[in-house]
Amino acid sequence: DLLSWGPADGFQSRFSQNSYLRLSDGPIALGGPDGIDLFRPNELIHPIEPPPVVIADVAIVAHPSADPAENSIRARAFRAALNQGLIVLKPEDAALSLDFAILDYVDPSRNRLSVSLWGGPAERVELGSQNRAVLGGLAPGEYELRLSGATAGGVWNREGALLRILVKPPFWKTPGFLGSLSLALLSLAAFGVHTRTRALERRAERFRTLSMHIQYAREEERKTAARDVHDELGQLLTAAKMDLSWLKGHPPEPKAHEERVEEAIAMVDSAIDSVKRISTKLRPRALDTLSLSEALLWQLEDFRRRSGIACEARIDPAPEGIDEGVATTLFRVLQEVLTNVGRHSDAKTVRVRFSVDAETLLLFVEDDGKGIPGYAAESVESIGILGMRERVKHEGGRFDIESPANLTGRGGTRVRVSIPLRKPSNTAKGELYA
Q1: Mean pLDDT of all residues in 163-174
Q2: Same domain, yes or no: 331 and 260
Q3: 295 and 287 in contact (C-beta within 8 Å)?
Q4: Are 240 and 272 found together in one domain?
Q5: Range with lowest mean pLDDT among 53-62, 176-185, 265-274, 423-432
Q6: Can you give the residue range of the structural domain that contains 292?
Q7: What is the pTM assigned to this prediction?
Q8: Which string of b and e fits 91-130 if b means at least 16 CB within 10 Å?
Q9: Residue 217: enclosing H or E segment and its boundaries?
Q10: Which of 63, 118, 138, 348 has the most Cβ atoms closer than 10 angstroms to its Cβ?
Q11: Co-location of 346 and 254 in the same domain
């Protein structure tokens, strides 16, 4: 360290250049305007004991919204805690102000002070003769603040005064909160994964059930078609063959031959009707020969004729160029809904509306029957509903079914189907929706 002296120590304030002399016995003579000063370095006391550094006061630089009374109470508590060397700051504290000094009274105006903050942004800051340090913007954590000072003569007290500062984090940064938040996020993620997995499992189960149902229905259709062909067409064609064979083996008799020919013609007509009925079961001709709106009306009229249930319809003309898959889906959905109404609802009236809203085809079916249970709409065992939903979803649409009876106690079931219009596509559909 560099020691210095001045007028307060008995020296002149100015000296003449090169006006000095070192005497043989050790003293140094220094000349100046006010005479000669004699300095005896051999008589200095070594080492010079530095004076102590003390903290005179501590205060909170509080946030403007803080309670002044509470800040005053905490400031007194801080002063009491100085003996323990620890200050605890809350997250809402804006800054901490400290007044400190080095206890040397020879020339206090020339005393120098500095602060060192370990764990903070600056290791050491020279304050000069300024005896107040303000610490602000401290992040949550622990810090060591060392206050150092030097006398006017340049004697430093490097150890100075040590103060530990603990800045508490806000509650959302505490380990407990972060741990709870992490646990909550993990639980939420686990729940999301579990929910997604269960949804995928249920969807896979619905697809398996639907696939098995389609295979079973396809086999039943084949059995029914084979039985109808064998029992009806086979018998009719056999009888017609027998009549033709009889005509071939008997001599011409106008009356008998006329009766046989009429019987054969009647059998052929019956065979033709059977072929039409069987082909209609497999695929109604209305899908190929009529427009979508006409096919829906045909389906509704056929249902009314077979079931005896009154039908109210408001079918708007369908736009031209509707994709064949979309038209088939709407026709089959109406067919399935009407089948369910006839089998399960005990309805007296069915209302059907078909319209085009902007770029969307809308089909709405409502009956006044007993409704369906709430769980049935999502049940894996509701094959018909599952098949309709998947058909509509395959075409990019939405299928909704509800029963007002579950909410109001009144009967009835409502089905709403919306499918966006799109240009005809030659993209092959999957067998599931053929």
Answers
A1: 86
A2: no
A3: yes
A4: yes
A5: 423-432
A6: 284-433
A7: 0.46
A8: eebeebebebbbebeebeebbbbbbbbeebeeeeeebeee
A9: helix 175-228
A10: 138
A11: no
